[in-house]
């Protein structure tokens, strides 16, 4: 009897040690996928979900210009490649965007500042957990091919630890090459799905946690309708904020923002004042170009959590682009008081001080931003804004040097090419201005300024055909631009007289 008890306790200790090591290895590469909402080119091509091609205004994220809330125009607030205004806080969804065509997605330069989607979202998850791709010299800790999943499913605590390890780790295959990553990830999620299905069957379908995990596997595999059923079933058994967030992610991937808003609002009825739910509503309104509603919900977030960095940054950005730099300055100062100390914050502080006519703090803020810049892209942003300050005070030579320094740090900065072209036009250097504008329009076809400036330049030198073509591109990028419409009208009159 004593020997039996000793063996029993020994096996319990082994299981405890195994479970502890599994959880520790999972924590090394754990990625909270609630905020991960990127759609790669591979997912976009292979998506078989039927979505309405022509959606009603205000009901689709793929048509950013159909907002009923009166979104800001590109003349007031710059937009990204996907057609949405630049936000005050960088999130994965705001980086990737939703290009209208595959050709547009591939042609967009791949930089951190553009809206080109990543190649594959599955590869993105693997790269976030880089340690999961390290090979163990003693062999893999868990060999999935040798596991009896049915046996582990009958032990709830071990099953949960094993599921987390499988779901968040790269497949235990030695020397996995980059070309094999999508397939190995596919196998990994299927193994996790099999374990979760067996475990929830053993729990007689009464454990909400396993249903959520099955929904997560379905979501990663692109089976969004199946994931929706699992999350809804889990919510019937147990109200959880995370489950609501997962369900809203499914609807956003299915391009149903209105349904996602209803899910968030129903969640707020059960969890009043929950910051993540209010912030989710604000993000959706912001993606739909309904900036006024987004600002209201961000203010509601600050009522519940007055240290929420995303809400403070987005409200400050909205005030700045609403021609209220003094109010924006207060929000950015609040971030500074909270301990946020980076290049972007001082860059924004410098711009707010300049437009609020507090010139004594402008240059010192930009100097601090240059000092804190971590890469050349950030340095380019600071020099570009310094060029705007120089234009504002009338020092065109300093502006020229600042825009040149911008291109030295980031050769793909389309706005700097456009502004340099304007300065060259003022000097009478027509050919140089034309070359710069062509470069700007090729780097950023979604911007209307290079197309419009090229149309004006071509019209002045008598090249009416090129002027008309560029004006049409400008109108396509910004249909409400009055000057472009007037130029097209004048060119049509010229053509009619010929």
TrEMBL record:
Q: Is DNA-binding given among the entry's keywords?
A: no
The organism's taxonomic lineage, starting at the top: Eukaryota, Metazoa, Chordata, Craniata, Vertebrata
| Signal sequence range | 1-19
* Gene Ontology CC terms: BBSome; ciliary basal body; non-motile cilium
TPR-type repeats, residues: 414-447
Residue span of region Disordered: 62-105
**InterPro entries linked to this entry:** BBS8 (IPR028796), TPR-like_helical_dom_sf (IPR011990), TPR_rpt (IPR019734)
The family database entries (Gene3D superfamilies) matched by this protein are listed as: Tetratricopeptide repeat domain (1.25.40.10)
**The protein, known as:** Tetratricopeptide repeat domain 8
| Biological processes annotated in GO | non-motile cilium assembly
Supply the alphabetized keyword list: Signal, TPR repeat
Is Cell membrane tagged as a keyword?
Answer: no
Q: Where is the composition biased (Polar residues)?
A: 92-103
Q: Which SUPFAM superfamilies match?
A: TPR-like
């Amino acid at each position: 009897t004593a020997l039996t008890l000793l063996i029993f306790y020994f096996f319990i200790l082994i299981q405890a040690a195994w479970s502890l090591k599994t959880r520790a290895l999972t924590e090394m590469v754990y990625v909270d996928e609630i905020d991960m909402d990127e759609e790669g080119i591979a997912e976009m091509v292979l998506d078989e979900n039927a979505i309405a091609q022509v959606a009603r205004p205000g009901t689709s994220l793929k048509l950013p210009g159909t907002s009923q809330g009166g979104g800001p125009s590109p003349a007031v607030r710059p937009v990204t490649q996907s057609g949405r205004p630049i936000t005050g806080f960088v999130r994965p969804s705001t980086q990737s965007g939703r290009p209208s065509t595959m050709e547009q997605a591939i042609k967009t330069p791949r930089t951190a500042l553009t809206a080109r989607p990543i190649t594959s979202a599955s590869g993105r998850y693997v790269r976030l957990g880089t340690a999961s791709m390290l090979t163990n010299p003693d062999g893999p800790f868990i060999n999935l091919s040798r596991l009896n999943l049915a046996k582990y499913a009958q032990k709830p605590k071990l099953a949960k630890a094993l599921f987390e390890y499988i779901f968040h780790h790269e497949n235990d295959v030695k020397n996995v090459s980059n070309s094999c990553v999508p397939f190995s990830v596919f196998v990994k999620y299927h193994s996790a799905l099999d374990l979760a299905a067996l475990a929830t069957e053993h729990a007689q379908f009464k454990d909400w946690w396993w249903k959520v995990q099955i929904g997560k596997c379905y979501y990663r595999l692109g089976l969004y309708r199946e994931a929706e059923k699992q999350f809804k079933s889990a919510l019937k058994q147990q109200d959880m904020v995370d489950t609501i967030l997962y369900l809203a992610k499914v609807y956003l991937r299915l391009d149903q923002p209105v349904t996602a808003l209803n899910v968030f609002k129903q969640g707020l009825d059960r969890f009043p004042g929950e910051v993540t739910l209010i912030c989710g509503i604000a993000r959706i309104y912001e993606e739909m170009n309904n900036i006024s509603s987004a600002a209201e919900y961000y203010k509601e977030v600050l009522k519940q959590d007055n240290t929420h960095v995303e809400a403070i940054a987005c409200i400050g950005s909205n005030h700045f682009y609403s021609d209220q730099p003094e109010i924006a300055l207060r929000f950015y100062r609040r971030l500074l008081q909270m301990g946020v100390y980076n290049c972007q914050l001082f860059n924004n502080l410098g711009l707010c001080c300049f437009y609020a006519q507090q010139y004594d703090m402008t240059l010192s803020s930009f100097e601090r931003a240059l000092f804190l810049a971590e890469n050349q892209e950030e340095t380019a942003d600071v020099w570009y804004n310094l060029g705007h300050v120089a234009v504002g005070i009338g020092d065109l030579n300093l502006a020229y040097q600042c825009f040149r320094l911008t291109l030295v740090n980031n050769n793909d900065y389309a706005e700097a090419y456009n502004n340099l072209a304007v300065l060259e036009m003022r000097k009478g250097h027509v050919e140089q201005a034309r070359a710069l504008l062509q470069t700007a329009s090729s780097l950023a076809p979604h911007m209307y300024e290079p197309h419009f400036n090229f149309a004006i330049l071509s019209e002045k030198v008598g090249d009416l055909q090129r002027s008309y073509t560029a004006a049409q591109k400008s109108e396509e990028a910004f249909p409400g631009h009055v000057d472009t419409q007037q130029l097209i009208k004048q060119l049509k009159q010229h053509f009619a007289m010929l």
